[in-house]
Amino acid sequence: MLLACIAVADRAVVELSGKLRDVGFDATASRIERGYEEKVIMLSLDTTERDEIIEALVECPEGLRDLRTVLQMEATRRDREDLSQPTDTSEVVGVPLAHELEEALGELERDYHHGHISREEWADRRRAHLAWFAERGIVLASVDARD
Question: Where are the domains of the chain?
Answer without folding.
Answer: 2-80, 89-135
